[in-house]
Design goal:
The chain is of the alpha/beta class. The protein has one domain: Formyl transferase, N-terminal domain (Rossmann fold, 3-Layer(aba) Sandwich). The chain contains six helices and nine strands. The chain has a seven-stranded mixed β-sheet with strand order 3-2-1-4-5-6-7, with helices on both faces. Strands 8-9 form a two-stranded antiparallel ribbon. Helix 1 packs across helix 6. It starts with 5 loop residues before the first strand and ends in a 5-residue tail after the last strand. The structure holds 5-O-phosphono-beta-D-ribofuranosylamine. 5-O-phosphono-beta-D-ribofuranosylamine binds next to helix 1, strand 5 and helix 6.
Length: about 210
């Protein structure tokens, strides 16, 4: 990437533990990138407090102040463009993105989802996995397209499901994996080592 630093824009709605994991990874110099903007659709999101505590630029944009989803998303795009964002990372962003947003950053939006996609897309993925009775679940980092958790898979981590698990225990086990997988996937993208071939992503080896 030369001297130009790779700029991340992160969209959040809540807790922000994945955001913290990304910040930590940057601080440890495992991820050569800079968070130039964190945007939230929730005023009280703990993720925003985490930004303030660490001096990361962040902004709450109130969906109620805009005429609709398309207008709101265009405001997000404008803020992200103003900060020259190279990659948009969804980290617990609980609003669906409009087609306008997706086409503005085509191929440059990623998400982390707490299941092994294409199993259990959408809300409460951990509960869906428990209710279904699968013995393994995990998390997926994927490109975002117009569908719900349907874009090409970039990386996945697997965790076992035990008989004694409840939603909270499983969510915690998956979350630990999320916190190492997401920064790792972003790092690989920053290094330009992910190639999209149809629906498949091919990962090039380091220094190849
Ligand atoms: C994570 O489980 C993530 O997979 C999902 O939303 C949750 C966000 O958690 N998309 P946090 O805000 O990063 O703590």
């Amino acid at each position: 990437m030369g001297n130009k630093s790779f700029k991340l824009g992160i969209l959040v709605s809540g807790r922000g533990s994945n955001l913290s994991a990304i910040m930590d990874s940057i601080d440890r110099k495992e991820l050569n990138a800079e968070i130039t903007l964190v945007l939230s659709n929730k005023k009280e999101a703990p993720a925003l407090q985490k930004c303030r505590a660490r001096g990361i630029p962040s902004l709450f944009l109130d969906p109620k102040s805009y005429g609709g989803k398309a207008e709101y998303d265009l405001a997000l795009v404008k803020e992200l463009r103003a900060k020259s964002v190279d990659l948009v990372c969804l980290a617990g962003y609980m609003k669906l993105l409009s087609d306008e947003f997706i086409s503005s950053f085509r191929g440059k939006i990623i998400n982390i989802h707490p299941s092994l996609l294409p199993s259990f897309p959408g809300l409460s993925a951990q509960k869906q996995a428990l209710d279904y009775g699968v013995k393994f679940s995990g998390c997926t980092v994927h490109f975002v397209d117009e569908g719900i958790d349907t874009g090409p898979v970039i990386m996945q981590s697997v965790v076992p499901i035990y008989d004694a698990d409840d939603e909270e225990k499983l969510s915690q086990r998956i979350l630990e994996q999320e916190h190492s997988l997401y920064p790792k996937a972003i790092h690989t993208l920053v290094e330009g080592r992910i190639q999209l071939e149809g629906r498949r992503t091919i990962q090039k080896a380091e220094n190849s």
